[in-house]
Amino acid sequence: VASHSVRARGRFSIALSGGSIAPALLPALAGSPIPWDATSFFWIDERAVPPDDPESNYGLAMKLLSGTPA
């Protein structure tokens, strides 16, 4: 899907809502061949917690997408 979007539109966009979707979606993204240089990532409804808080979707994303153990 990501590569198709980049070929068709030059960009791939992801909008991540808050709540329990992040733990389900982010591991799949981390293991996917996504063209990150042509990807825009939008945080929708992010919790107002620091990145190192267990409730932070941003913190989880940074750990998973950087290869750091969660």
Helix content: 40-55%
Rounded radius of gyration (Å):
13 Å
Span of the ends, CA to CA: 26 Å
Tell me, briefly, the overall form: elongated
Number of helices: 3
Characterize the main sheet: 2 strands, parallel
Category from helices, strands and their pairing: alpha+beta
Secondary-structure element series: HEHEH
Quaternary assembly: single chain
Secondary structure tally: strands: 2
Identify the strand order in the major beta sheet. 1-2
Rounded mean pLDDT is 83
Describe the structure.
This protein has 70 residues and is of the alpha+beta class. The chain is 40% helix and 14% strand. The protein contains three helices and two strands; from the N terminus they run H-E-H-E-H. It has helices spanning 2-9, 21-30, 57-66, and strands spanning 12-16, 39-43. It has a two-stranded parallel ribbon. Helix 2 (21-30) runs parallel beside helix 3. The protein starts with a helix and ends with a helix. The relative contact order is 0.21.
